[in-house]
Amino acid sequence: MDSLKQIQAPISREMVEFEDYFRGAMRSENGLLDKISHYIIKRKGKQMRPMFVFLSSRMFGETKESSYVAASMIELLHTATLVHDDVVDDAQARRGFFSINALWKNKIAVLVGDYLLSRGLMISVDKGEFKLLQITNRAVKEMSEGELLQQEKSRLLNITEEVYYQIIRQKTASLIAACCHSGAAAAGADDDAQQRMYEFGILVGLAFQVKDDLFDYGEEGDIGKPTGIDIQERKMTLPLIHVLQKSDGKTRREIMNVIKNHNTDRTRVKALIKKIHEAGGIRYATQKMNEFREQARAILQTFPENPARNGLEQLLDYTINRTK
C-alpha cells in the first residue's frame, strides 16, 4: 500500500507551505485562543483533506493562493466539527491526546469550535473567494442535516440502507466532496470538471465511511482499539443494516434486543459481531465499499493522466486500505 508520504510527492511543497498558512489562519490575539490553537496544531491528524484539495488543484494546473485558502477553510471547518463532536459525545480523548473539552471544559470547547468555523468563513471573505465560500457553506449545511437525520432515525433504530447512504453522504462524504470541488475551482477548472470532482469526492467519502464501519467488526489487535463500539452506542452501520434487512422476524428481534437492552454486555456484543460476520454483513459492506471505489476511479479516469491524478488514485486506495 502506498504511504501518505509517497502519495504527497506531487504536492510535497504545498503541504509544507500549508503548515505555515494554516498556522496563520488559526492565529488570534486572544491569549487563551492562541494557546488552544497551538494545541490543536500540535495534534493534527493525517491531513488527508488538504491533500485532496491540493491534488485536485494540481490536476488542473499550478497551485495558486486560492488553493491554500480552500485547504485552510476545509481544515478549519473539519477541526471545528471535531471539537463540537467531542462536546456532544463527552469524549475525553482524540488521536491519543486529551480533547479540548477535557482540558478546558465544554463551554470553552464550544466557543473554540465557533471561532474556528468563523475563521474559515472570514478567510474566504477577506480574500474575495466567494465561490469557495459557497462550496464550503454547502458542506456545513449538509453535515448538519446529516447529523440531525442520524439522530432522528437512531432513536427509532429503523434506518434502511437508503437512509444510511443519505446520512453518510451528508455527514462524511459532503466534506471530502468539498475538498475536491474547491481544489478544482481554485485552479480554474471549468464547471463540468468541478462537478465531476464533486461527484468523485462523494464516492470517496462513501467508501471512507463504510471502511470506518468495518473497523468496528475487526479484531481489536488489528486496529488498536476495542471493537463493538458502534453497537454499544446503538449506531446503525452498513453490516448491521444489511443483516437486519435479510433476517427473518425472530432473528431481527434477537438482534434488536441486544442493541436496545444489552449493548454494554461485552459477551453479547461479541456474539452479535460473530453473527453479523456469519450472516454476510461484512462481505456485503466490503463489496459496496469496493463498488464506490471503482465508481470514483472511473470518474478520475475521465481526466488526462498526470502525477496529481495518480496521487488522487493512490489516496482513494489508501482511504479503504488503511488500518485505522
Q: Which runs of at least 5 residues are low in confidence (pLDDT < 50)?
A: 220-225
Broad structural category: mainly alpha
The CATH architecture can be given as Orthogonal Bundle
Please give the order of strands in the largest beta sheet.
Answer: 1-2
Please give a structural write-up.
The chain is mainly alpha-helical and 324 residues long. It has one domain: Farnesyl Diphosphate Synthase (Orthogonal Bundle). It has helices at residues 4-7, 12-26, 31-42, 48-58, 65-89, 100-126, 130-154, 161-186, 191-215, 220-223, 229-232, 238-246, 249-261, 266-278, 281-300, 307-321; strands spanning 93-94, 97-98. The chain has a two-stranded antiparallel ribbon. The radius of gyration is 20 Å and the shape is globular. The two termini are 14 Å apart.
Task: State the main characteristics.
324 residues, Farnesyl Diphosphate Synthase, two-stranded antiparallel ribbon, 16 helices
Task: Walk me through the topology.
Layout: H1 4-7, H2 12-26, H3 31-42, H4 48-58, H5 65-89, E1 93-94, E2 97-98, H6 100-126, H7 130-154, H8 161-186, H9 191-215, H10 220-223, H11 229-232, H12 238-246, H13 249-261, H14 266-278, H15 281-300, H16 307-321
Antiparallel strand pairs: 1-2
